[in-house]
Design brief:
The chain has 98 residues and is mainly alpha-helical. The chain is 57% helix and 0% strand. It contains six helices and no strands. The protein is globular and about 45 Å long.
């Protein structure tokens, strides 16, 4: 699909130009940002959903459901997905803003 990359929008482009996400919470946005990064990284690494699934103990349909947000991923599934690509997900605790 030559030239397709020129027509593809990034998640950042979509967020800037879409009015459909005005009610999205910060938590939901962070989750989508994380999954978008991992999904894009998987593609850049030329790893198929099947290959990643085999590496992390998930089926291809399970990987697809995570990437398409058909299911809300758990922290454990995000960590598994990230580890399969050579990444680690970390959490931090910060003071809440009043």
């Amino acid at each position: 699909m030559k030239g397709l990359e020129n027509n593809m929008r990034t998640w950042e482009d979509f967020k800037r130009n879409s009015k459909s996400f005005t009610n999205m919470t910060e938590k939901e946005g962070n989750l989508i940002d994380t999954l978008a990064f991992l999904h894009a990284t998987r593609i850049k690494m030329n790893i198929s959903q099947t290959q990643l699934g085999q590496k992390i103990g998930m089926s291809q349909p399970q990987v697809a459901k995570l990437e398409n947000l058909v299911v809300q991923p758990t922290l454990a599934s995000l960590r598994k997905y990230a580890a399969g690509l050579g990444f680690k997900i970390t959490l931090s605790v910060v003071p809440a803003l009043s």
